Amino acid sequence: MTKKMRYVLHVVAAAGAIMCVVAVVCIAWFSHGVGHLRTDNVSDSHAMSNSRNSTHGYNAKCSSHAVASDAGRAVLAIRENVNYSQEAILSRPLNSIVPDSLLPENATILTNDSLPDRQAYIPEVGNGHIATVVQSDAILMNGLYNGRDKTSHRARIPSTSGYSVNWTSPSGLERKYSLDIGRGIFTESYTGAGVTISLRTYAHRSLTLVMVNELTLSRENTSIDVSVKIVLNRGQESEDVNFYKDSHGILHGETKEAEYPEIAPTIRFYMLTSASLEGVETISSGLTTETFVSLTSIDVNKTKAIFQYEQARAQFLGGTLLSSHVDGWNHMWQRGRIDIAGDITISKMNYACLYYLMSSLPLTPNRKEWPFFGLSPGGLAHGVENLDYMGHVFWDQDTWMFPPIALLHSDIGRTLVQTRIRTLRSAQLLAKRSGNEGAKYPWESSYTGLETCPAEPYGRLEIHVIGDVAMMMRQYWQLTRDVELMVDLSGADVVWETAKYWAARSTYNQTDDTFRINGVMPPDEFNFPVNDSVYTNSIAALNLLFANQLARFLGKSENETWSNISSKLLILYDETLDFHPEFQGFSTYRHRPKQADVVLLGYPLMVDMKLSTRKNDLMIYEEITSTGPAMTWGMFLLGWLELDNVTKANELYQKTVANAQEPFLVWAEYADGDGATNFLTGMGGYLQMILFGYGGCRIRDETLTFKPVLMEGSNEMTFVGIDYRGCSFDLRYSDTEMTLNQTHVTCGSVGLSVRFNDSGAWHSLTTGIPMTRERQSFEIKNLR
Questions:
Q1: At what angle do helices 491-505 and 410-422 cross, to 10 degrees?
Q2: Cα-based angle 424, 403, 442 (whole degrees, multiple of 5)
Q3: Theoretical Cys-Cys bridge with 330: which of 102, 263, 321, 496, CB 3.0 to 4.6 Å?
Q4: CA distance 45 to 175
Q5: Measured distance CA(353)–CA(687) in Å, rounded
Q6: Is 34 exposed, middle or buried (0-12, 13-18, 19+ CB in 10 A)?
Q7: How far is the C-alpha of 292 from the C-alpha of 284, rounded, in Å?
Q8: Residue 367 has what DSSP assignment?
Q9: Number of other residues whose CB lies within 10 A of the CB of residue 323
Q10: What are 646-699's pLDDT values in tens digits?
Q11: What's the Cα-to-Cα distance from 331 to each of 60, 272, 350, 393, 451, rounded to whole Å?
């Protein structure tokens, strides 16, 4: 089919596209999807899923369209006769409308005239379901893993979106590469001689199954010939997936090797792609602008993959595909973000960290058939075999990434919590296999929730992750009081089962009437095995305490064993030096910690201690800690702010951001550029430094407290959309004053109240009416 013929198709397609979408919606409404997970009760095969949540996603949202089913099916029959692999290239004689971004463009459009020499520093686009490093040979999908047990890794789908420009005509145009953080778009552009050529790549923020590439050719007048050669980086055949194409041109994929076949089989999925942009594209005669598009839709549910492909196709022909994507990002930014004014460098860093984290997170609730599987240190765009921790989920999600996300987007925080509920039965199985009761969450998990750490002895010894999971549950509970999640969706079971594990794992020492936890690896992975890791014992004690606290709230009896152990777990303390030794036998002369460990007692664990002890912990461990991964120094900075030493905190700032690589602010795990990329763990630590350090936020049982401090170089900081107990509010502050503005109150809540440090009285916040005071500490509570 020639390019000339496609314009005739456009007229027909534009007329019927919306009805076609309605038809696919109707079929999707009656579809049960594709089931992959064995959850029967035969031997260990029950270990995959413990979630009882109802579907809040696709089917529920589509129900209003079911009345149009008869007319819709008639139109769908036309599209069903199409072989997707033989369709012509889609184009339209206009540029795509690019809506305004909610964010300031001078801080959110990162531009350079060349790409980084190292592939690791090239940016990514994603939406929580699919993601890709731009111009790479891979698309990766949430939950799609290949490899037996400890070789499990993200399965590489050969890229259908890794396009780049090989040459242009006219030649000699100015080339730019831009990452638009506010809109979630990467662009390779060429301008000059009355010509503009733009190649955009984005993972659609609303149609989350769809990856989009748009090529726009523009000229000032029709006498200028404009052509471009596009190349596609497909890479080699996938070593992870077997593909075959059906009669409609739809690719059927299946991973080659199940992670744990006794738990779940190989994973099947479906993939639709429009005609490739690869080759020479020339603007059509008589046009001054023409936009071509390539669409890729991927999902485990064939009907849904078709539905979103058709919807994307219809939106492109109608001129709304790009704008609906940007609207999705604007909606996310409007609901929760951090604005920092006065220092453009800080502002860029702040937005970039939020962008990369959100690019690996879904904005919609979990789908029952294919939930979100968790945040990996390298995010969704990284983690193929033997690279970037292979897409595994660690404590990084629970301890480093969850807090800033949950504070600004409690609904996404809920999704993260559900990743651990989903794998509770697997954790129970691991505990049983280790000879203990309860739930033992793995150090690294992928698809099944069983251990996938490829090296010893991490999975066996680094059990603090169990307490980290419970800590995330506790913080979420403190922020939301989400009874439905705790009771109906088994969140409380995670807390109680992890408490059972600590009770079984601890040993009683009759000599000093204490409980000990021996033979562990602390967060400091340089020193192991050790006894009585102060971090491990402290988080275990918190887990046990919270388990009883939650039981009381839900009308259950306290477990006296848990109370006894939590009160007697040995928390090492050196009275002479007034600090916490990291473990039994620790020496400040002989041992060099890898990363933040003991300093985490002050935050986020909030262990009760003297201010002098907190100061000594910071001083001693800052002196002897190695270069450390990216999140380490933000915790030291946060600690100094807690002690009101702003000067010392500001001195550490450059160490916290040394891992960010120009020009697109991709983070490396280590400051020398080595380690995993794009290191979301470090970004989570950075955002905690902003919110919980300079913002001074602390999540407590009944209140949310703040002690705001202005960052050096900034003149105003704003936290937009802080979520607390069904309400949202903004906090804006300068060096002298601050303003609180309640922006949302859910049905059934009467809103928030605030008590300022200079007053003992509680003041009710009224939605839409700002309250301004001198900058000071304050606390928030829900009036319900």
A1: 50
A2: 30
A3: 102
A4: 54
A5: 7
A6: middle
A7: 11
A8: P
A9: 16
A10: 999 999 999 999 999 999 999 999 999 999 999 999 999 999 999 999 999 999
A11: 21, 27, 18, 27, 37
**DSSP codes joined into one string, 32-80:** ---------SSTTTT-S----PPP-SHHHHHGGGGGGHHHHHHHHHHHH
Q: Cβ–Cβ contacts within 10 Å for residue 363, how many?
A: 19
Both structure tokens of 622 = 């800052």
What span, in angstroms and rounded, lies between the C-alpha atoms of 84 and 237? 21
Among 65-74, 122-131, 367-376, name the one with the lowest average pLDDT: 65-74
Task: For residue 5, count other CB atoms closer than 10 A to its CB.
Answer: 9
- Strand-pair partners of 192: 195
Residue positions counted in the chain? 784
- Residue 189 bridge partners (DSSP): 176, 198
The identity of residue 304, as a single letter, is K
Q: Which bin fits 699, alpha (ψ -120 to 50), beta or left (φ > 0)? A: beta
Structure tokens that stand for 375 in this block: 């945040």
DSSP secondary structure code for residue 766 in this structure: B
Residue with tokens 């409404």: 29
User: Which residue has 């930014």 as its token pair?
Assistant: 333
- Which residue has tokens 């050790």? 530
φ and ψ at residue 597, rounded to 5 degrees: -140, -80
pTM value is 0.90
State the first-to-last Cα distance of the chain, in angstroms, to the nearest integer. Answer: 65
Stretch (H or E) spanning 408: helix 402-408
| Torsion sign across C-alpha atoms 117, 382, 605, 753 | positive
Task: Write out pLDDT tens, residues 46-79.
Answer: 333 333 232 222 222 232 222 223 333 333 333 5
Decide if 346 contacts 340 (C-beta within 8 A): yes
* Measured distance CA(577)–CA(613) in Å, rounded: 9
What's CA 18's distance to the chain center, in Å? 32
Residues 493, 501: Cα–Cα separation, whole Å: 12
> What is the C-alpha to C-alpha distance for residues 184 and 132, in angstroms, rounded to an integer?
12
* H or E stretch covering 649: helix 646-657
Inter-CA distances, 784 with 137, 716, 726, 746, 752, Å: 52, 32, 10, 11, 8
Quick check: 777 and 757 in contact, CB under 8 A?
yes
In order of start, what are the domains of the chain with their CATH numbers? Answer: 84-335 (2.70.98), 337-716 (1.50.10.10), 725-782 (no CATH)
Q: Which residues pair with 739 in a beta bridge?
A: 732, 772
Sign of CA dihedral 709, 763, 481, 563: positive
| Token output for 485 | 């999640």
Q: Facing residues of 196 across strands?
A: 191, 218
Active site residues per annotation: 525
Q: How far apart are CA 436 and CA 429, in angstroms?
A: 10
- Which one-letter DSSP state was computed for residue 717? E
| Spatial CB neighbours of 653, under 8 Å, sequence gap ≥ 6 | 637, 711, 712
